[in-house]
Amino acid sequence: MSSPTAPAVAPATPSTRDVAIEAVDLVKRFGDFTAVDGVSFTVPQGSVLGLLGPNGAGKTTTVRMMTTLSPPTSGTARVAGYDVIEQPDMVRRSMGLTGQAATVDEILTGRENLRMIGGLYGIGRKDLTRRSEQLLEQFSLSDAGDKQVKSYSGGMRRRLDLAVSLLAAPPVLFLDEPTTGLDPRSRTELWDVLRDLVREGTTLLLTTQYLEEADHLADKIVVIDKGAIIAEGTSLQLKEQAGAASLVLTVSDPADIPAAEALLRKTGGEVFIDEGARKLTTAADGLADLTRVVGWFDESGIAVDDLGLARPSLDDVFLSLTGHRAEDETSTEEEQNA
Ligand SMILES: Nc1ncnc2c1ncn2[C@@H]1O[C@H](COP(=O)(O)OP(=O)(O)OP(=O)(O)O)[C@@H](O)[C@H]1O
Ligand SMILES: [Mg+2]
């Protein structure tokens, strides 16, 4: 355990061989404020867990405890079978972490950043050169490798961050909001890279505020709010809990709202009305419902500006699970963020 060079890491106990990451009743208090309130979950080897929640939910605090950066107030976590409290060195050798804020040095080039961090890991010169070039290639940074990081786009920085955290080829990777702030193209590019890693056997825990991201990447999603798990399951299961899809209709003339409401009621569900936006919403089973509704409105002669199916957003999941919208968070609590 005190050996300075990183050995190939084997799981600590046979019973935990198939579980790569485990949170065991994690609690974190800051003074009398409880940021994480008894969080438990397991992540099987080679799978992806998405930790989904709004600002201030406790995602970063959970990741910090699981990556030995912050001691739990109570509870513990195991990474590759090693306990974060009892065996922090072994945990660190088994994992990579890409934090929420970029950790790479702006003044250095991409290549220099990889060399520097690799040097800190104690990777030999020849191996380090080979590994650095391989990662730059994998993350489409070969050409930009000799440019200073301060000239990189947000997407390039995130990719370099990820490359740096993969230098030691860790079997377990923690990513804290890897795509926040990225444009849609950079985001899907990064998703591709992450999927490749998982295909090669890496276990991934990623935090995100986007259901769509968890949807694309995660085998299982754990939703946290105010430090506690409020739901878990596959993305499909969560969406079903949130009420599948909804049908959203905008009438051209506000005077038609009552008539439109009467028509939509024929679907059998409750109709929500936003008068100002001339918008009516109701639960829908899918395209079949949409087609029926289009027919009714055609016959009725009510002019419609817009009609479509909306998939549930993280917001809808929250609303259905907690009865409050994700963005209400800061207004209902004292400002926690300094
Ligand atoms: N060192 C600290 N001292 C006091 N409070 C803290 C500290 N770190 C985090 N908190 C509080 O704990 C709560 C959870 O914070 P955390 O950073 O884990 O949320 P998050 O889910 O990562 O949010 P975001 O999506 O904004 O990154 C917040 O209310 C935050 O203000
Ligand atoms: Mg965070």
UniProtKB/TrEMBL annotation:
Main location: membrane
Example of a GO cellular component annotation carried by this entry: plasma membrane
Signal peptide region: none
Gene3D superfamilies the record matches: P-loop containing nucleotide triphosphate hydrolases
GO molecular function per UniProt: ATP binding; ATP hydrolysis activity
Domain ABC transporter stretches: 21-251
Annotated compartments: Cell membrane
Sorted UniProt keywords: Antibiotic resistance, ATP-binding, Cell membrane, Membrane, Nucleotide-binding, Translocase, Transport
Topology in membrane: Peripheral membrane protein
UniProt keyword Mitochondrion present: no
Pfam family for this entry, one: ABC_tran
GO biological process per UniProt: daunorubicin transport; doxorubicin transport; response to antibiotic; transmembrane transport
InterPro entries assigned: AAA+_ATPase, ABC_transporter-like_ATP-bd, ABC_transporter-like_CS, ABC_transporter_ATP-binding, DrrA, P-loop_NTPase
PROSITE patterns referenced in this protein's UniProt entry, alphabetically: ABC_TRANSPORTER_1, ABC_TRANSPORTER_2
Family per record: Belongs to the ABC transporter superfamily. Drug exporter-1 (DrugE1) (TC 3.A.1.105) family.
Protein name: ATP-binding cassette domain-containing protein
Organism lineage: Bacteria, Bacillati, Actinomycetota, Actinomycetes, Mycobacteriales
